C-alpha cells in the first residue's frame, strides 16, 4: 500500500512542478463541467420559446347557415389564434403557405377547408359529418419542431371541438330545459296515460270479446248486403212495373176525366130531357084523365105516352151506362197487391153506386108507366072506371118520376158531378206523386247498387282488418301487459319529478361542464421546475463519464519505473490519481449545476455526494478497462458510453426504446447512476436509492477486483498485442 501511495504522491508532485501539466489537468477538470452545463442550459426551457416557431394558417371556410342562423367557425378560430401566443401564427393564402413550408419558412401549415362550418352544422342532421383541418409539416427541418407544432395543432383541434361540443350541448340542454318544463306541465296527462295503459290492460279481455262480436257482426252485415244485392233486380222490376201500372191508371183517369168532361153536358141535357118528358107525360095524363076520349084519341094518347117514355128510358139508360163506366174506372184505380196505384175512396164508389141505383129506380118507374100505358086498350071496354083509376095511377107514377128526376138532377149537379171531378183530380194527383216517388226510386237504384257494392267491399276490407287485428291481438295484448309492467317497474325505480328536475338544469352550467367535463387535478409528488432541471441528472452523469474518458485519453495508466513495483501497486496508485481528478471534476459540475445554473435540487447535499459516488464507480470502471486493455479499453469505454446514452432511459422512458435497448438497460451503470441523481433532484425514495447504490457498488467492487487481481496477467497479453500493433507504424 505504501508503494501505491508513493505513486499517488509522485503524480501530485509532478503536477505541481509542471505548469503545463497543471494547466492541462485544470482543463480536464473543468471541461466535463462545460459539457454538462452547456447541454443543461440549452435544454433549460425549450417550450418557453415556441412562440417563435412560424406556423402558417389558411382560412378557406365559407361559413354555413344552421336553423336560419349563420355560423363561421373558421373565422372564430382565426380570431382565437390571433390572440394566442403559443406559436408565431401567420395568416396567409394556401399558395403562399405551401410555398413557404416547402422552402422552410414555416415549420407547419394549418388549412381550414371551405366546408369546415358546413360539416359541423350537420350535427343536427341524421347523418353528421366530421370536419377536418388540413395539417402539413416539414419534418426535414427539425426532429423536435414537428412534434411541437403537431401538439399545438392537436390542442387547437381539441379546443375547437370542446367549444363546439359545449355549444351544441348548451343548445341540447336548453331544449331539455324546455322539455322538462313541458313535461312538468303535461305531468297530469302523463299520469292519465299511465292510468289509461292500466285500464287498457284490465279491459283487454272485454276488448277481445268485442272484437269477436264485431267480426261476427261484419259477417252478418255482409250476408245482409249480399241478400239486398240479390234482391235489387226484383226491386228494379217491381218499380218498373209499378211505374207501368201508374201510367196505365193515369191513362184511365185521363180518359175518365175526358169522358166526364164530354158526358157532363150530355148527362145534364139527358136528365133535363127526361124530366121534361116526364113532366109532359104527367101533364098529358092529367089532361087525358079530365076529358072523355074515344078509342082513336086513346090510341093517340097511348102512342104519345109510349113514345115519350121510350125516349125518356133511353136517356136514363145512357145516363146509367155513363155512371157504370165511371164506377168501373174508379174500381180500376184500386191499389194492387204491390200497392203501386193510388188508393180508392169507398165513399166515392158508394155515391156512384147510389146514383146508378137511382137511375135504375127512375128507369123502373118509367118502364112501369110505359107498360101501364100500353095496357090501356084492354081497359077501355066496360072498364071506364078502372081506366080512370089506371090513368090516375099513371099520373101518380109519372109525377113520382118527375119528382125523382128533379131530385136526381139536383143531386147530380150538386154532389155527384163535383165529387167525381174532385175524386178524379185527387186520384190523378196521388198517382202523379206516387209516380214521382217511383221515378226517384228508379233513379236512386243505381246509387243504391253502388252503395251496396261499396259497402260490401268495405265490409270485406273491414272484416279482413278485423281478422288481422284478431291475429295481432295476442302480440298487442302481450305488449300492453309488458308496457304496463315496465311502467310499474319504472315508477318503482325512478321518480319522474327527479327526471323533470334533471331536465330543468341550467343550460349554461351544463355547457361549462361539457366544455371541460374532466379537469385534470395535477398532484406533483416530485415536482421538477423545468425541462433543464429534469435533464440535469442525465447530463451530469454523462459529463462524469466524459470526464473519465478525457482523463484516460490524456493521462498514463502506468507509472514510471514500475519495474520495481507490482502491477497491483501501480493499479492502486494510479487509480487514486484518477479518482482525485474525478472527484474534482464531479465537485465542480454538481456545485456548478446548483449555483451557476440554478438547478433546484430537492436534496442538494445528496446530489453532490451521489455525484462523487458515481464518479468513483465510473472512474474505477473506465480506468480498469484502459489499464487492462490499453487502447482497446478506451474503445470499450467509448462503446459503453454510446450504449448507455441510448439505453439508459436518460432522455426517453426505457419502455419507448427498441427491444434491444430495453434488454440491456438493466445491466448498464448509467441506468442506476441517472436514477440515483434523479432521486436527489426530485425527492429521495430510499428504497430506490438502496437499489441503485447496491448495483453500482457491486459493479465497482467487481471491476476493482478484476483489475487488482488480473492486471498483471492481462497486461502480458495486451503488451504483446500493443508491440505488434506499433510495428505497423499506424499506432503509437
- Point out poorly predicted stretches: 336-342, 379-383
What is the average of the pLDDT values? 75
Taken as a percent bin, the fraction of beta residues is under 5%
Helix content: over 70%
Biggest sheet: strand arrangement: 4-1-5-6
Q: Distance between the terminal alpha carbons, to the nearest Å?
A: 32 Å
**Mind telling me the C-alpha Rg?**
72 Å
Gross morphology: rod-shaped
Treating each run of at least 4 consecutive H or I residues as one helix, how many helices? 20
Helix-strand makeup class: mainly alpha
Order of helices and strands: HHEEEHEHEHEHHHHHHHHHHHHHHH
**Domain unit count:** 3
> Biggest sheet, in brief?
4 strands, mixed
Structure description:
This protein is mainly α. It is built from 20 helices and 6 strands. The protein folds into 3 domains: 2-45 and 530-726, no CATH class; 47-184, abc type-2 transporter like fold (3-Layer(aba) Sandwich); 229-454, Four Helix Bundle (Hemerythrin (Met), subunit A), CATH 1.20.120. 77% of the residues lie in helices and 3% in strands. The two termini are 32 Å apart.
Structure characteristics:
single chain, 732 residues, abc type-2 transporter like fold, Four Helix Bundle (Hemerythrin (Met), subunit A), four-stranded mixed beta sheet, 20 helices, rod-shaped
Q: What's the short story on this structure?
A:
The protein has helices at residues 2-17, 19-42, 73-82, 94-103, 116-121, 145-185, 187-290, 295-332, 346-374, 377-380, 384-493, 496-503, 507-515, 531-554, 567-595, 604-629, 631-647, 659-664, 669-682, 686-726; strands at residues 54-59, 64-66, 69-71, 88-91, 108-112, 134-137.
